[in-house]
From TrEMBL:
Pathway it works in: Purine metabolism; IMP biosynthesis via de novo pathway; 5-amino-1-(5-phospho-D-ribosyl)imidazole from N(2)-formyl-N(1)-(5-phospho-D-ribosyl)glycinamide: step 2/2
Top EC class of this enzyme: ligase
Protein name per its UniProtKB record: Phosphoribosylformylglycinamidine cyclo-ligase
Species per Swiss-Prot/TrEMBL record: Crystallibacter crystallopoietes
Single GO BP term: 'de novo' IMP biosynthetic process
Encoding gene, per UniProt annotation: purM
A cellular component term, taken from the record's GO annotations: cytosol
């Protein structure tokens, strides 16, 4: 083997594009926000090889079931990067993860995050994590650990992606799901805060096709297009758990409206043989969804199987508890309304307004009727 030329310039980790000191600075900048999410169950501080969480409280459960979920925020990060605003994308990440867990009635206990970037800019990484931590506080979830990885040559200097995972617990007797849903149940919608974190590949394609810039003021939105597109995902965890524990509401199930749209996600939590009839006339499409439809001439069926169209979470409740459920949600500042009912599947139905099973789940069906208000 030829000996290296000691007089030649040396190759270091830093010259290869990885700045360890910048990573350490990012950790220092985010420490306070992370610690704010910690309760007495979190063991140790920030920076350990593993996050530790004391689960002694599970001893009070008769049969605790652990629930876990992992997700990212898709191409919405491209909007954050284009606008150079990074302290809101964390809400999108937490919402996508913890609100899947509460669908089964589980309380999210702790969460970890992962950030991959082309170059560690400490202030930018700290902004991302501060957003994650702030959303964890809203959800009542501890942020116990995470990882920031610098990938020069794979990602551009200003590019990054985020992902996360969370673990929760539910008493087996309180597990929510299709087996609890009954004929006659009422379907309650909870308003979304906007597009949330799904369908941005479609939205970005429409915006680019129309030639609209993110700093364009849009009168229908009352702000710039970029500000609307970056609106954080609403985190429903605390409101859903409160409703599930409110006996008068008679909650039988939840559905988190993410990729696939309302019908596909609602069908996943219905049992075989039952169908939710959802009346579109019970709500008006928020302006951003109308705008996407108009700018891209997007067919309604495509909108409905891609975007949430104003409904971010759904509760399925006993008919006797519907009024109580709505009152409870309204008391907590949630915009909610009855959007439909559950009944027997009509075997004669077909077409884009009818969904039978979805996402690999051979469950119930959803029939969308009427026109949006």
């Amino acid at each position: 083997m030829t000996s290296p030329d000691l007089g030649a310039s040396q190759i270091t980790y830093a010259s290869a594009g990885v700045d360890v000191e910048a990573g350490d600075k990012a950790v220092e900048l985010m420490k306070g926000a992370i610690k704010a999410t910690h309760n007495t169950n979190v063991i140790g501080g920030v920076g350990g090889f593993a996050g530790l969480y004391d689960v002694s409280a599970l001893l009070k459960y008769r049969k605790p079931l652990l629930a876990t979920s992992t997700d990212g925020v898709g191409t919405k990060v491209a909007i954050a990067q284009a606008m150079d605003i990074h302290d809101t994308i964390g809400f999108d990440l937490v919402g996508m993860v913890v609100d899947d867990i509460v669908v089964v009635g589980a309380e999210p206990l702790f969460m970890t995050d992962y950030i991959a970037c082309g170059k560690v800019v400490p202030e930018r990484i700290a902004d991302i994590v501060r957003g994650i931590a702030a959303a964890c506080e809203v959800a009542g979830t501890a942020l116990v650990g995470g990882e920031t990885a610098e990938h020069p040559g794979l990602l551009g200097e200003h590019e990054y992606d985020v992902a996360g995972a969370a673990t929760g617990v539910v008493e087996a007797d309180n597990l929510l799901g299709p087996d609890r849903v009954k004929d006659g149940d009422v379907v309650i919608a909870m308003a979304s805060s906007g597009i949330h974190s799904n369908g941005y590949s479609l939205v970005r394609r429409v915006i680019n096709h129309a030639g609209w810039a993110l700093d364009r003021q849009v009168s229908e939105l009352g702000r710039t297009l970029g500000e609307e597109l970056l609106e954080p995902t609403k985190v429903y965890a605390a409101d859903c758990l409160d409703l599930a524990r409110y006996e008068a509401a008679g909650v039988h199930g939840f559905s988190h409206v993410t990729g696939g749209g309302l019908a596909a996600n609602l069908a996943r939590v219905l049992p075989q043989g039952l169908m939710a009839t959802v009346d579109r006339s019970t709500w008006e499409l928020p302006a951003i969804f109308k705008l996407v439809a108009q700018l891209g001439n997007v067919p309604q069926a495509d909108l409905e199987r891609t975007l949430n169209l104003g409904v971010g979470m759904v509760a399925i409740v006993d008919p006797a508890g519907a009024d109580a459920a709505l009152a409870r949600l309204n008391e907590r500042g949630m915009t909610a309304w009855a959007m439909g009912t559950v009944g027997a599947v009509d075997g004669s139905l077909s077409g884009p307004d009818f969904v039978q099973g979805a996402k690999g789940v051979d469950g119930g069906a959803v029939h969308l009727v009427g026109n949006y208000a």
